[in-house]
């Protein structure tokens, strides 16, 4: 495999991790997932009688996509830990996208509860991928307790505001010894490419594709953007200059 | 006896097991996990775990989201 994404020893050829929320129906979701080329996709854990499709696992299975259960909507470490244990039981995976959010308006991670839950779940044998703030110190703390990756936000979930603090993302990348996945806030393809150019190892997005006017087309765009950004980040870009520099020989 | 499952009270026979309870409600299917009184009951123990009166169960599965 050429230039694989490696998380906790598992290799993926795609550096695009997708979510499944927001799609109008499973048929559109499936076509978008296939177009994106993703090999790892998040699902939520909810009451069996709750509204919302339960056929999503079948979609993932028949396309060879690994499920990544999340703890979306959990507000406390205790809730998130129980949800992760239920997800492990239901899906037979010890991987979890750990989400502990502070409130509904911002959906920002609660750093205290998040770190607490991460520590517990690592001790319980989980492969923990935490959705975190773009805070370089918190990212280090999450790595120290044994998280398999860190997943800083570009901007709040579902906003499509892109990467509001690129330098923080660069700081996280510069010191992290685990993969960095830009998670949340991606609005369009250039945001995904920027994440990769900043040195992120992968991008996780859902809304940007599932709520786009043409989800399949946007999924295709994201696939290429992540690939382009990855190539550019390894290509040693030219320095930025104040004045012009001719690219043609003098007359 | 009575137990609360996913927020709704249901009556069951005394000494009902987790498996019988889930089967009664149509929830005994692949991809489902159950917690009783805040603790996960692994599928392998559904048949041997009795549900006490007043128990609170959550039965969950994977859905679109995130």
UniProtKB/TrEMBL annotation, chain A:
The active site is at 97 (schiff-base intermediate with dxp). The keyword Transferase applies. GO terms for biological process: thiamine diphosphate biosynthetic process. 1-deoxy-D-xylulose 5-phosphate binds at residues 158, 184-185, 206-207. Its EC number is 2.8.1.10. Catalyzes the rearrangement of 1-deoxy-D-xylulose 5-phosphate (DXP) to produce the thiazole phosphate moiety of thiamine. Sulfur is provided by the thiocarboxylate moiety of the carrier protein ThiS. In vitro, sulfur can be provided by H(2)S. This is Thiazole synthase. It comes from Labedaea rhizosphaerae.
From TrEMBL, chain B:
InterPro entries: Beta-grasp_dom_sf (IPR012675), Mopterin_synth/thiamin_S_b (IPR016155), Thi_S (IPR010035), ThiS/MoaD-like (IPR003749). Pfam families: ThiS (PF02597). Signal peptide: none annotated. It comes from the Bacteria. This is Sulfur carrier protein ThiS.
């Amino acid at each position: 495999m050429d230039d694989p994404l490696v998380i906790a020893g598992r290799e993926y050829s795609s550096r695009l991790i997708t979510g499944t929320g927001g799609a109008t129906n499973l048929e559109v979701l499936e076509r978008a997932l296939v177009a994106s080329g993703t090999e790892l996709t998040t699902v939520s854990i909810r009451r069996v009688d709750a509204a919302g499709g339960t056929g999503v696992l079948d979609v993932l299975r028949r396309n060879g996509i690994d499920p990544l259960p999340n703890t979306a909507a959990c507000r406390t470490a205790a809730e998130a830990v129980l949800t992760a244990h239920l997800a492990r039981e239901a899906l037979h995976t010890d991987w979890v996208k750990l989400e502990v959010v502070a409130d509904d308006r911002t959906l920002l991670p609660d750093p205290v509860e998040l770190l607490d839950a991460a520590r517990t779940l690592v001790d319980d044998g989980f492969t923990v991928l935490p959705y975190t703030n773009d805070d370089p110190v918190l990212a280090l703390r999450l790595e120290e307790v044994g998280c398999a990756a860190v997943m800083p936000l570009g901007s709040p979930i579902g906003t499509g505001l892109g990467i509001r603090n690129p330098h923080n993302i660069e700081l996280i990348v510069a010191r992290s010894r685990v993969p960095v996945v830009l998670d949340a806030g991606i609005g369009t393809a250039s945001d995904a490419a920027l994440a990769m150019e900043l040195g992120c190892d992968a991008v996780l997005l859902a809304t940007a594709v599932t709520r786009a006017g043409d989800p399949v087309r946007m999924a295709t765009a994201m696939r290429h953007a992540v690939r382009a950004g990855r190539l550019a980040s390894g290509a040693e870009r030219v320095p930025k200059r104040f004045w012009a520099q001719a690219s043609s020989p003098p007359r | 006896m009575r137990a609360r499952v996913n927020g709704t009270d249901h009556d069951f026979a005394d000494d009902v097991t987790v498996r019988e309870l889930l089967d009664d409600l149509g929830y005994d299917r692949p991809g489902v996990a159950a917690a009783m009184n805040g603790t996960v009951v692994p599928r392998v123990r559904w048949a041997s775990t009795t549900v006490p009166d007043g128990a609170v169960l959550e039965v969950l599965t994977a859905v679109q989201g995130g």
